[in-house]
Write a structure and sequence with these properties.
The structure holds two protein chains of two kinds. Chain A is an all-beta fold. Helices cover 0% and strands 50% of the residues of chain A. In chain A, the strands form two sheets. In chain A, strands 2, 4, 5, 6, 9, 10 and 11 form a seven-stranded mixed sheet that branches. Chain A has a four-stranded antiparallel sheet with strand order 1-3-8-7, with no helix packed on it. By secondary structure, chain B is mainly beta. Helix content of chain B is 0%, strand content 52%. Chain B contains no helices and twelve strands. In chain B, a hairpin with a 5-residue loop joins strand 5 and strand 6. The chains are: A mainly beta, B mainly beta. Chains A and B meet through strand 4, strand 5, strand 9 and strand 10 of A and strand 6, strand 10 and strand 11 of B.
């Protein structure tokens, strides 16, 4: 088990709503990345935060936004939810932006109805 | 652009037999290649990585991977499969901005 925890584990929302997912990184890790894993697919990079600043972004619209706090925990916010946003959202922490090994949480399963 | 491809959705192998899970990559520059494993209802776990050096990389749980530059492949291998190895395996490549690109995954089924 990694030290990365995510909450909630499951979430059901309706189209158009907003959602906030939370991640507590492993102790000592200052970098957090968020990934979206659709059913039957590999994880896709959403964005990365390093010391409270966004440090890279994948091909996701602006309604996907994030925050990183001084304790390096992080939030992923999604506005105006769409049906296609239904997926497993994974948080991964690492010791730094150049660290090759990611430590993943168990994810938040989001269902948009 | 960086990408990886896993041509097999599923691999079936008998316990005790060798296993191979295939991965090919496309990168600009030097490849930084990884294998991760995902068990049901769990996040991904790091298995091994290739950055530079020997083409045969050893990782966790007895797994190894062979880097082949000419074939742009990075296949995951294990000499003797265990039932407990059954899981979803992802190949990944990292770009210069520490962004990881994952393949679509290969489900490994090891039968007793």
């Amino acid at each position: 088990e990694t030290g990365v925890t995510q909450s909630p584990t499951h979430l059901i929302k309706t189209r158009g709503q907003q959602v906030t997912l939370r991640c507590s990184s492993q102790s000592g890790h200052n970098t957090v990345s968020w990934y979206q894993q659709a059913l039957g697919q590999g994880p896709q990079f959403i964005f990365q935060y390093y010391r409270e600043e966004e440090n890279g972004r994948g091909n996701f619209p602006p309604r996907f936004s994030g925050l990183q706090f001084p304790n390096y925990s992080s939030e992923l916010n999604v506005n105006a939810l769409e049906l296609d946003d239904s997926a497993l959202y994974l948080c991964a922490s690492s010791l730094g932006v150049d660290e090759e090994k990611l430590f993943f949480g168990s994810g938040t399963q989001l269902s948009v109805l | 652009a960086q990408s990886v491809a896993q041509p097999e959705d599923q691999v079936n192998v008998a316990e005790g037999n060798p296993l191979t899970v295939k991965c090919t990559y496309s990168v600009s520059g030097n490849p930084y290649l990884f294998w991760y494993v995902q068990y049901p209802n769990r996040g991904l776990q790091f298995l091994l990585k290739y950055i530079t050096g020997d083409n045969l990389v050893k990782g966790s749980y007895g797994f190894e991977a062979e880097f082949n530059k000419s074939q742009t492949s990075f296949h995951l291998k294990k000499p003797s499969a265990l039932v407990s190895d059954s899981a979803l395996y992802f190949c990944a490549v990292r770009d210069g901005f520490n962004k990881f690109y994952f393949g679509s995954g290969t489900k490994l089924n090891v039968k007793p």
